[in-house]
Protein backbone atom coordinates (compact mmCIF):
# COMPACT_ATOMS: atom_id res chain seq x y z
CA UNK A 1 0.00 0.00 0.00
CA UNK A 2 1.29 3.47 -0.85
CA UNK A 3 2.32 5.40 2.25
CA UNK A 4 0.50 8.47 0.90
CA UNK A 5 -3.23 9.01 1.41
CA UNK A 6 -3.85 10.46 -2.08
CA UNK A 7 -2.14 11.99 -5.10
CA UNK A 8 -3.49 15.41 -4.10
CA UNK A 9 -4.68 17.00 -0.87
CA UNK A 10 -7.60 19.39 -1.39
CA UNK A 11 -7.34 23.04 -0.36
CA UNK A 12 -10.61 23.96 -2.12
CA UNK A 13 -12.61 22.46 -5.00
CA UNK A 14 -10.08 23.87 -7.48
CA UNK A 15 -6.88 24.09 -5.41
CA UNK A 16 -4.68 21.25 -4.19
CA UNK A 17 -1.30 20.33 -2.76
CA UNK A 18 0.55 17.57 -4.58
CA UNK A 19 1.98 14.65 -2.61
CA UNK A 20 5.08 12.52 -3.34
CA UNK A 21 2.70 9.96 -4.92
CA UNK A 22 2.68 12.18 -8.02
CA UNK A 23 6.49 12.06 -8.42
CA UNK A 24 8.22 11.65 -11.78
CA UNK A 25 10.56 8.65 -11.99
CA UNK A 26 13.49 10.93 -12.93
CA UNK A 27 13.03 13.92 -10.62
CA UNK A 28 10.99 13.79 -7.42
CA UNK A 29 10.62 17.59 -7.56
CA UNK A 30 8.48 17.12 -10.69
CA UNK A 31 5.21 15.25 -11.26
CA UNK A 32 4.53 12.25 -13.49
CA UNK A 33 2.06 13.23 -16.23
CA UNK A 34 -0.67 10.84 -15.08
CA UNK A 35 -1.90 12.58 -11.90
CA UNK A 36 -2.10 16.10 -13.47
CA UNK A 37 -3.95 14.62 -16.48
CA UNK A 38 -6.41 12.93 -14.11
CA UNK A 39 -6.85 16.15 -12.13
CA UNK A 40 -7.74 17.97 -15.35
CA UNK A 41 -10.26 15.23 -16.15
CA UNK A 42 -11.77 15.95 -12.75
CA UNK A 43 -11.95 19.68 -13.53
CA UNK A 44 -13.67 18.94 -16.85
CA UNK A 45 -16.15 16.56 -15.20
CA UNK A 46 -16.96 19.20 -12.56
CA UNK A 47 -17.59 21.90 -15.20
CA UNK A 48 -21.38 22.12 -15.56
CA UNK A 49 -21.55 18.36 -14.98
CA UNK A 50 -23.99 16.08 -16.77
CA UNK A 51 -23.76 12.35 -16.05
CA UNK A 52 -25.16 11.56 -19.50
CA UNK A 53 -22.31 13.45 -21.25
CA UNK A 54 -19.01 11.80 -20.28
CA UNK A 55 -15.60 12.63 -21.74
CA UNK A 56 -15.19 10.98 -25.15
CA UNK A 57 -11.82 12.45 -26.16
CA UNK A 58 -9.29 14.27 -24.01
CA UNK A 59 -6.04 15.84 -25.16
CA UNK A 60 -3.53 17.01 -22.56
CA UNK A 61 -0.67 19.34 -23.54
CA UNK A 62 2.27 19.45 -21.13
CA UNK A 63 3.93 22.87 -21.34
CA UNK A 64 7.05 21.74 -19.47
CA UNK A 65 8.01 19.98 -16.26
CA UNK A 66 5.21 20.11 -13.68
CA UNK A 67 6.63 21.03 -10.26
CA UNK A 68 5.42 19.71 -6.95
CA UNK A 69 3.54 22.20 -4.79
CA UNK A 70 0.29 24.16 -4.93
CA UNK A 71 -1.92 23.20 -7.86
CA UNK A 72 -4.94 25.04 -9.26
CA UNK A 73 -7.34 23.95 -12.02
CA UNK A 74 -9.81 25.89 -14.16
CA UNK A 75 -12.33 24.65 -16.73
CA UNK A 76 -14.91 26.21 -19.06
CA UNK A 77 -17.25 25.11 -21.84
CA UNK A 78 -16.17 26.69 -25.12
CA UNK A 79 -18.65 24.95 -27.43
CA UNK A 80 -21.93 24.02 -25.73
CA UNK A 81 -24.32 21.53 -27.31
CA UNK A 82 -27.15 19.11 -26.61
CA UNK A 83 -25.29 16.05 -27.95
CA UNK A 84 -21.63 17.12 -28.08
CA UNK A 85 -19.74 19.88 -26.30
CA UNK A 86 -16.13 21.03 -26.01
CA UNK A 87 -14.52 21.85 -22.67
CA UNK A 88 -11.11 23.41 -22.07
CA UNK A 89 -9.13 23.25 -18.83
CA UNK A 90 -5.86 24.52 -17.40
CA UNK A 91 -3.62 23.40 -14.57
CA UNK A 92 -1.43 25.92 -12.78
CA UNK A 93 1.49 24.79 -10.62
CA UNK A 94 2.84 27.31 -8.11
CA UNK A 95 1.02 30.09 -10.05
CA UNK A 96 2.57 29.13 -13.41
CA UNK A 97 0.53 27.63 -16.26
CA UNK A 98 1.82 24.05 -16.60
CA UNK A 99 -0.77 21.97 -18.51
CA UNK A 100 -3.64 22.65 -20.91
CA UNK A 101 -6.35 20.21 -21.87
CA UNK A 102 -9.39 20.00 -24.12
CA UNK A 103 -12.14 17.42 -24.07
CA UNK A 104 -15.15 16.55 -26.18
CA UNK A 105 -18.10 15.27 -24.20
CA UNK A 106 -20.67 13.17 -26.09
CA UNK A 107 -24.15 12.35 -24.84
CA UNK A 108 -24.75 8.68 -24.11
CA UNK A 109 -27.74 6.87 -25.61
CA UNK A 110 -28.05 3.66 -23.57
CA UNK A 111 -28.75 0.64 -25.75
CA UNK A 112 -29.05 2.65 -28.98
CA UNK A 113 -26.32 0.69 -30.80
CA UNK A 114 -26.35 -2.60 -28.87
CA UNK A 115 -27.41 -4.52 -32.00
CA UNK A 116 -24.35 -3.31 -33.99
CA UNK A 117 -21.73 -3.16 -31.22
CA UNK A 118 -18.26 -4.51 -32.06
CA UNK A 119 -17.53 -7.99 -30.64
CA UNK A 120 -15.76 -7.80 -27.29
CA UNK A 121 -12.13 -8.96 -26.91
CA UNK A 122 -11.33 -9.74 -23.29
CA UNK A 123 -7.87 -9.35 -21.71
CA UNK A 124 -6.14 -12.14 -19.75
CA UNK A 125 -6.84 -12.54 -16.03
CA UNK A 126 -5.10 -10.35 -13.45
CA UNK A 127 -1.89 -12.17 -12.39
CA UNK A 128 -0.86 -12.81 -8.81
CA UNK A 129 1.18 -10.09 -7.05
CA UNK A 130 4.91 -9.93 -7.76
CA UNK A 131 7.68 -7.68 -6.42
CA UNK A 132 7.96 -4.46 -8.43
CA UNK A 133 11.36 -3.55 -9.88
CA UNK A 134 11.29 -0.12 -11.50
CA UNK A 135 13.30 1.31 -14.39
CA UNK A 136 17.07 1.06 -14.12
CA UNK A 137 18.36 4.14 -12.28
CA UNK A 138 15.02 5.07 -10.71
CA UNK A 139 14.78 5.51 -6.94
CA UNK A 140 13.25 2.47 -5.25
CA UNK A 141 11.00 4.90 -3.34
CA UNK A 142 9.48 6.31 -6.55
CA UNK A 143 6.15 7.74 -5.37
CA UNK A 144 3.96 7.25 -8.45
CA UNK A 145 5.37 3.77 -9.01
CA UNK A 146 4.38 2.66 -5.51
CA UNK A 147 0.96 4.37 -5.70
CA UNK A 148 -0.08 1.98 -8.52
CA UNK A 149 -0.38 -1.80 -8.24
CA UNK A 150 1.32 -3.16 -11.39
CA UNK A 151 0.73 -6.75 -12.60
CA UNK A 152 2.54 -7.42 -15.92
CA UNK A 153 1.44 -10.12 -18.35
CA UNK A 154 4.03 -9.13 -20.99
CA UNK A 155 7.26 -7.24 -20.34
CA UNK A 156 8.06 -5.21 -17.24
CA UNK A 157 9.68 -1.90 -16.31
CA UNK A 158 13.14 -3.05 -17.38
CA UNK A 159 12.18 -4.95 -20.55
CA UNK A 160 12.38 -3.05 -23.84
CA UNK A 161 9.49 -3.18 -26.29
CA UNK A 162 5.72 -3.60 -26.01
CA UNK A 163 4.19 -4.13 -22.58
CA UNK A 164 0.89 -5.44 -21.25
CA UNK A 165 0.03 -4.78 -17.62
CA UNK A 166 -2.91 -4.73 -15.27
CA UNK A 167 -2.82 -1.58 -13.12
CA UNK A 168 -4.84 -0.32 -10.17
CA UNK A 169 -4.45 2.92 -8.23
CA UNK A 170 -3.98 2.13 -4.55
CA UNK A 171 -5.02 5.61 -3.40
CA UNK A 172 -7.62 8.17 -4.52
CA UNK A 173 -6.76 11.01 -6.87
CA UNK A 174 -7.98 13.59 -4.35
CA UNK A 175 -8.10 12.81 -0.65
CA UNK A 176 -11.61 12.33 0.69
CA UNK A 177 -13.45 11.76 -2.60
CA UNK A 178 -14.00 8.84 -4.98
CA UNK A 179 -11.94 8.67 -8.18
CA UNK A 180 -14.12 8.52 -11.29
CA UNK A 181 -13.61 5.96 -14.03
CA UNK A 182 -12.23 8.52 -16.49
CA UNK A 183 -9.88 9.92 -13.86
CA UNK A 184 -8.53 6.39 -13.33
CA UNK A 185 -7.96 6.01 -17.08
CA UNK A 186 -6.00 9.27 -17.21
CA UNK A 187 -3.94 8.29 -14.16
CA UNK A 188 -2.27 5.45 -16.09
CA UNK A 189 -2.63 6.46 -19.78
CA UNK A 190 0.52 8.62 -19.71
CA UNK A 191 2.51 5.52 -18.73
CA UNK A 192 2.13 4.07 -22.24
CA UNK A 193 5.36 5.58 -23.55
CA UNK A 194 7.50 4.75 -20.52
CA UNK A 195 6.40 1.13 -20.28
CA UNK A 196 6.93 0.43 -24.00
CA UNK A 197 10.28 2.14 -24.55
CA UNK A 198 12.38 0.73 -27.38
CA UNK A 199 15.65 2.02 -25.86
CA UNK A 200 16.97 2.16 -22.28
CA UNK A 201 15.54 5.11 -20.35
CA UNK A 202 18.89 5.50 -18.59
CA UNK A 203 20.50 6.35 -21.96
CA UNK A 204 17.69 7.90 -24.02
CA UNK A 205 14.93 10.46 -23.62
CA UNK A 206 11.55 9.79 -25.20
CA UNK A 207 9.40 12.69 -24.09
CA UNK A 208 5.68 12.98 -24.94
CA UNK A 209 4.67 16.67 -24.96
CA UNK A 210 1.03 15.70 -25.34
CA UNK A 211 -1.38 12.83 -24.64
CA UNK A 212 -4.65 12.01 -26.40
CA UNK A 213 -7.10 9.50 -24.95
CA UNK A 214 -10.24 8.54 -26.87
CA UNK A 215 -12.80 6.89 -24.60
CA UNK A 216 -15.40 4.35 -25.70
CA UNK A 217 -16.75 3.81 -22.20
CA UNK A 218 -15.80 4.39 -18.59
CA UNK A 219 -14.54 1.50 -16.45
CA UNK A 220 -16.72 0.01 -13.74
CA UNK A 221 -13.95 -1.81 -11.87
CA UNK A 222 -10.62 -0.66 -10.42
CA UNK A 223 -8.31 -2.95 -12.40
CA UNK A 224 -7.32 -1.62 -15.85
CA UNK A 225 -5.40 -3.52 -18.55
CA UNK A 226 -2.90 -1.30 -20.40
CA UNK A 227 -1.38 -2.49 -23.70
CA UNK A 228 1.36 -0.22 -25.03
CA UNK A 229 3.87 -0.15 -27.90
CA UNK A 230 6.25 2.47 -29.27
CA UNK A 231 7.87 3.02 -32.66
CA UNK A 232 10.96 5.17 -33.28
CA UNK A 233 11.52 6.99 -36.58
CA UNK A 234 14.88 7.94 -38.14
CA UNK A 235 14.71 11.66 -37.37
CA UNK A 236 14.37 11.97 -33.60
CA UNK A 237 10.64 11.40 -33.27
CA UNK A 238 8.45 8.47 -32.41
CA UNK A 239 4.92 7.39 -31.54
CA UNK A 240 3.62 5.64 -28.44
CA UNK A 241 0.23 3.98 -28.80
CA UNK A 242 -1.89 1.94 -26.49
CA UNK A 243 -5.26 0.85 -25.27
CA UNK A 244 -6.88 0.28 -21.91
CA UNK A 245 -9.45 -2.46 -21.29
CA UNK A 246 -11.19 -3.98 -18.30
CA UNK A 247 -12.76 -7.38 -17.75
CA UNK A 248 -15.64 -6.36 -20.05
CA UNK A 249 -13.50 -5.23 -23.00
CA UNK A 250 -12.11 -2.06 -24.58
CA UNK A 251 -12.27 1.23 -22.67
CA UNK A 252 -10.04 3.68 -24.57
CA UNK A 253 -7.20 4.20 -27.01
CA UNK A 254 -4.04 6.25 -26.35
CA UNK A 255 -1.69 8.17 -28.67
CA UNK A 256 1.46 10.15 -27.85
CA UNK A 257 4.07 11.75 -30.14
CA UNK A 258 7.63 11.38 -28.82
CA UNK A 259 10.74 13.53 -28.82
CA UNK A 260 13.60 11.00 -28.93
CA UNK A 261 17.17 11.98 -28.07
CA UNK A 262 20.24 10.67 -26.22
CA UNK A 263 20.59 11.79 -22.62
CA UNK A 264 23.33 14.26 -21.80
TrEMBL record:
Residues 23-105 form the Acyl-CoA thioesterase-like N-terminal HotDog domain. It comes from the Bacteria. Coiled coil: none annotated. It holds the Pfam family 4HBT_3C. SUPFAM superfamilies: Thioesterase/thiol ester dehydrase-isomerase (SSF54637). Residues 134-260 form the Acyl-CoA thioesterase-like C-terminal domain. This is Thioesterase family protein. It comes from Actinoplanes palleronii. The lineage of its organism: Bacteria, Bacillati, Actinomycetota, Actinomycetes, Micromonosporales.
Amino acid sequence: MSEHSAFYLPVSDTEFTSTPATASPWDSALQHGGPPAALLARAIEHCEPAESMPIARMTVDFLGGIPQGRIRTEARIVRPGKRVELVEAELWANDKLAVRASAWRIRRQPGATAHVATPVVLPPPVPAPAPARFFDGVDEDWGYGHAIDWRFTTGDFDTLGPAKVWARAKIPLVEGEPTSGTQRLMLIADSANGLSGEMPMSEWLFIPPTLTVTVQREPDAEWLFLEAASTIGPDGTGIAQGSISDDKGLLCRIAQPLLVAPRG
